[in-house]
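Rotation project, supervised by the postdoc (A.L.). Task for the rotation student: set up a whole-complex structure prediction and record inputs and outputs verbatim in this book. Inputs entered:
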Amino acid sequence: MERTKFTLDETEIPTHWYNVQADLPKPLPPVLHPGTGNPVTPDDLAPLFPMELIKQEVSTERWIEIPEEVRDVYQLWRPTTLFRAHRLEKALDTPAKIFYKYEGTSPPGSHKPNTAVAQAYYNKQEGIKRISTETGAGQWGSALSFGGACFGVEITVYMVRISYDQKPYRRIMMEVWGAKCVPSPSEDTKAGRDMLAKWPDCPGSLGLAISEAVEDCMSRDDTHYALGSVLNHVLLHQTVNGLEAKKLMEKADAYPDIIVGCIGGGSNFAGLFLPFVKDKIDGTRPDLRIINVEPMSAPSITKGPYAYDFGDVAGLTPLIKMYTLGHSFIPPPIHAGGLRYHGMAPIICHLHQLGLVEARAEHQLATFEAGITFARTEGIISAPEPCHNIKVAIDEALKCRESGESKTILIAHSGHGHVDMAAYDAYLSGKLQDYEYPEDKVKEALAELPKVG
Amino acid sequence: MERTKFTLDETEIPTHWYNVQADLPKPLPPVLHPGTGNPVTPDDLAPLFPMELIKQEVSTERWIEIPEEVRDVYQLWRPTTLFRAHRLEKALDTPAKIFYKYEGTSPPGSHKPNTAVAQAYYNKQEGIKRISTETGAGQWGSALSFGGACFGVEITVYMVRISYDQKPYRRIMMEVWGAKCVPSPSEDTKAGRDMLAKWPDCPGSLGLAISEAVEDCMSRDDTHYALGSVLNHVLLHQTVNGLEAKKLMEKADAYPDIIVGCIGGGSNFAGLFLPFVKDKIDGTRPDLRIINVEPMSAPSITKGPYAYDFGDVAGLTPLIKMYTLGHSFIPPPIHAGGLRYHGMAPIICHLHQLGLVEARAEHQLATFEAGITFARTEGIISAPEPCHNIKVAIDEALKCRESGESKTILIAHSGHGHVDMAAYDAYLSGKLQDYEYPEDKVKEALAELPKVG
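Outputs recorded:
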């Protein structure tokens, strides 16, 4: 029997998250206060986040302990499995060795609860009763709803309208876990009302939904805000996945030549690759390639400038140094809702600036084609987001077929697509389309970048 | 940290299925040929099934080896996890210990591929190119589509119309795996056309879809038929789950006082309990209670006579001795489509006759209420089918709260409800209804039982 599956047992859930800030060759550029242009202070952030998360955001400790209560919930689906994709390799007739670490067995079906559970926990610890947040495809909103249910914290989710309409199942999941889900733009906030006045049929965007969630939080004393990606503490929590992956690759007696993952805000992929990038920073594995895969509809690293920008549409967040398409940019309505974001995690951008990671952009149709190939070989029906990295993994494996090289490719597989079947239906019935990179709209949005320094 | 999770490693997938026919105190009544009234022979069944499955159907060998190719695919999700439901226990304030064995991490999200993969394999081995089958909620159809993709066998699925309409996602999953899905009743078969002539809006039933799939198979030389439940070989394949559960309960240092599972055709629950019922048959565990949970809309064991009947509506299958509501009975359209069947697995019926298992029927609304409680404590959003056993497990745990007893309850959890969110939406928005037990319709259907002997 070919060994397809590599697992850790329930006692091997990592006890600490890995903080790459301890090992960066140069520190991250500071996050700036939009009013003063000075670095933000913990006090600036206190209305939004629990103090423990604010500390994690700027910590340079290498290892940060995972609270026992969080590990206790992690047990419901962690450690997750590393698979060797023998069937896919055979179908591609490639000498490449393809592995994937699969996060689809969590209750919401994605990697998002790795941080959702932690964030709900720290808020509960600090006496917070309610959390507002935004969601794109609904993965994050449903994950935080699950996290809220675990610790008895009330959750309100602003969901990007296009996904709210395309993916009603995610909204219902939030409600099953007891949360409230509001389509964004909504009438509940000034940011939402302003947008609806300008553009009544606005499909929404992650940036706009963030504005609404932040405004909701700022207008109430009992409420904090939570972000499902981008920020350092979110990437930190996701490293539980990469730490498991590293142990499991050892069990499989392998080390990746190439790691691929899709990036919207960047947390899933960073969670997987950060424990490996460490080996590249310290020179142990200089040849390791880490490929970030973006959608052609929102290619922030591949097309955007590295600049200070807001995380949201309305300009309520601090200023973050990142690759950006402009905070007012609203990406075309691709089905990979989790990738429709104008910016990118500062840690990934910084690593890209340092030449430690690379990026590539893919069109929607080709990613679904790859998703079908994966489903018919490996069995798993992937969410539209990881179909992006599967596409790139297949391309790299086919290059190996040409060159005869037997490279080891590791895919960060963020979750299943059981709630995204309408997208597959559109693809299979020929109704799905690609969108040209919206160059003009990006230009317009970039003209509105905030002036800094 | 409380121990919540019990796992086996990938090398511990059972190597053999357990065949309860080796241990039955009395043999099963024979399956009869509807024309002659004599026991069916292997030759009678050869047009439908591969010879290996026909042998398994009547075998009295205790252990039947799982082919390596099947175990190879099992690795994609097996062994599955046993969870201790600490959070649910706490919410119920019960001294009961509640465990659940969870089958929702398979590619289609249910227990069904345990047999689908095996059936696709044996058909492939015997040179069969195409398999026709039926599906209720779509769990079986999608599982067989996955199995077909694994071994390169073409699959056509007749899907009960009400589920085809309520659950389009399952149909799309089948198509993603390369299968063809037809709503039943259809114009493609005589059985379908006859029904449509009588009742153009017929919501369909599992019994009718079986008629269509059998007719499809009989009309083509390259095609076999596959059944996702009821038959002995299907229950046999599902015992891989119960064998794992037994090892895992040992790991948890526990043995169940009560095992609960929902039954439509009965294969998921039997797969879990058969390795335990052995202990009851041989007297090791005389007090073990095994509770089969039916929907009030199709309560075959609790309301039906134990009699010879057809497995399908049109009367194409052999005659099976089972509890039945009459093969022409079409159950009300509850969301637990997998439980809408007029009959029951002969093995479960026989064990019920022998006093080794019991049965109970539940209404739809109460099962969704239990499902919500489970989701908000244990995280997992359950398919409507296992909500039935969760309801009974909660009832039994609450009895323990009254009596102060600390019983151990094991739930057979057949899968997640990510594709059933419309049902939860209906429940949460107050649009879901209960259906009275349709006594008159059952009477009518029972009047049409075939005369035997």
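Student's summary: Residues 68-109+232-446 of chain A form a domain with the Rossmann fold fold (CATH 3.40.50.1100).
Supervisor addendum: Chain A touches chain B through 47 residues (CB under 8 Å).
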